[in-house]
Each structure stands twice: as structure tokens, then as C-alpha cells.
Amino acid sequence: MAESGSKKVIKLVPEYLLKKRKTYQAIKATQAKLALLEKRKVAKGKPLKFRRLEDFLKDSHKKHRDETRIRRADHRPPTPLPPEKNKLAFAMRIREIKGVSTKVMKVIQMMRLRKIFSGTFIKINKTSMGMMKMVEPYVAWGFPNLKSVRELILKRGQTRIGRRKVPLTDNALIEQHMGKTGIICLEDLIHEIYSVGKNFRAANNFLLPFKLSVPRHAARDKAGLLKDLGNPGFRASDINSIIRLLN
Asked: Which of 67, 71, 103, 215 has its CA 20 to 30 A from that of 199?
């Protein structure tokens, strides 16, 4: 009787408590793992980006050169307008703008040329000519013909719907967003851009900047610039050959 009285009774744990305990242990293990990873990330820190002194001097010289050029241009007579038949220009950025002055950067952003080898159509007037002169060392511009305008819009024309970039391959899409201006198809859009009609601003804003491509094995000079593109600035009708090259 004494032996039977000394035996301990083992209490059984309900199954739902075992499952609950197992789930809790899994959650705590996951939290501990995430905390350890976060601790390692904080201890490691972000990698430091070192810049050589020559880079700061180069940016400073470029900024000073831009400011001097703009200040001298203010004392010169304004750039004369081209003949009346040339109402449309195509501007394309072919130089890096790292370290440029604030005024130049602002004009480039207004022209929507934030990325290198991007291009936009611009209406020729007194204001736009002044803007072209300000960004002349970084932008090549000229007068595109109808063939260049057509090829650019048909091959690389895009618009933004919400947050998505949508290629212009459907006339129904153009009519939906531009129908109130009388533009219902690609041909109407091309005609409005090339003729610089009364709805040119709306049509041009409907188009995203054209992102042109550079051949992978294009010849470059010692500075890494493309030889075939030539120098920036006013290129008149030669801009059409650049469009053929990069389109």
C-alpha cells in the first residue's frame, strides 16, 4: 500500500495547449532571428561613398564655368530667332550634368531632359531660344523633319497613365485622353507636333521624353564621349542624322 501511495500521477496536457505552446515558440524564434539580423545591419551600417578631391574640384570648376558663361551671355544681344518656317526643335542631352550650376539644372529639368540621351520637342520662341543658349554645352538641338518626328513617335512614343508608362500603339487610348483637343489618332498627334499647332503644348506634355538608345560598340573618344554625335549646341538639320543613329 505504501508503494502504491508513493507513485506520482502524471497529468496529461491537452492537445490544444501543446499546439499553442509550439506556435508561440515559433513566433519567438522568428522574432529573435529578425532582431539579430537588424542588429547586424545597424552594426554594419551603410557603406561609405568616398569621393576624391579631384571630383570636388572638377564639379566646382564646372559650376563656376557655367555661372561665368551665363553672366557673360546676359550682356550680349539676344539670340536671333530662326526663320519662321522652323517652328519646331528637337533637343537631346548628350553630356553629363553632374556638378552644373543651379540655373542650368533648373532649365534641364524644365526641358524634361533629366536622363542622358533623352530628347523632347520644343516650340521655337524667344524664351526657348534663351533656354537653349543656357544649356548649350550639354544639349544638342536642331530642326527635325517630318520623317524624324514620325519615326520617333511611332517607335518610341510613350505616355503615362497613372503610374504606368504605356506605348502609343492604340488610337483608342489617344482619343480617350486627347480627344477634347481634336487629336484622335497617331497621325493627328504627329501632325500637331510637327506643325506646332494650337494644341502643341498639350500634345507635347502627353508624350513622355524620348529615351534614345546608344549602340553597344559605338566609338568613343578619350573622355568616353561618343564620336558620332559630335559636339553639343545648335546642329540645324544635322539633328536628323543623330536621331537616325540613336533611334
From this structure: 103
